[in-house]
Amino acid sequence: MVTDPDRHGAPRVPPLPEAEWNETLKVVAATVGPLNIFTTLGRHRELFDSWLGFGSMLLLKGTLTGRVRELAILRTAHLASCEYEWAHHHRIGLDAGLAEAEIAALRLGLDEHPWDAADRAVLTAVDELHADGTLGDRTWAALAGRLGENELIELVVLIGHYHMLAFALNALRVRPDAGH
Questions:
Q1: Claim to verify: residue 48 and residue 98 sit in the same structural domain
Q2: Angle at which helices 66-79 and 149-172 cross, to 10°
Q3: What are the residue boundaries of the Carboxymuconolactone decarboxylase-like domain, all occurrences included (predicted)?
Q4: What pLDDT digit, counting tens, does each position of 56-68 carry?
Q5: Number of domains in the chain
């Protein structure tokens, strides 16, 4: 594993100043605040506009329960060492009904917390996708016994999306927002 001794250095791409925001970024900032993820990715206007719709669908309009979604996102953030994702989704995870003890356990080995079978299947999927880029048949069967076809597709895409986003946030050194 390559580690960057300057991982927490200055952002490699600074957030876009408010005077340069396009209409999409203005609307997003007015809705959720001028978060660094948006003001940084907003520098690439076409990519930002496309990504925003996709990411919003997964976060706000998906078929997965909030619990499943946030377990997957937080475990992905942990495995990808993405401080930004972890900070934001810690709060969102609490809002989705996760307990503090469960969130803390997402940083541990799967056997170090008494996950029920449904949660364990989701977390195993995250771990396998992170390590191997695919799911084993046993994990797929455990998920397929609990999730419908659309949810199965969405879970794999959600994990991949947040893995990709963690890469971008880490590589660009997007700093956590104040209060998160």
A1: no
A2: 40
A3: 46-126
A4: 999 999 999 999 9
A5: 2
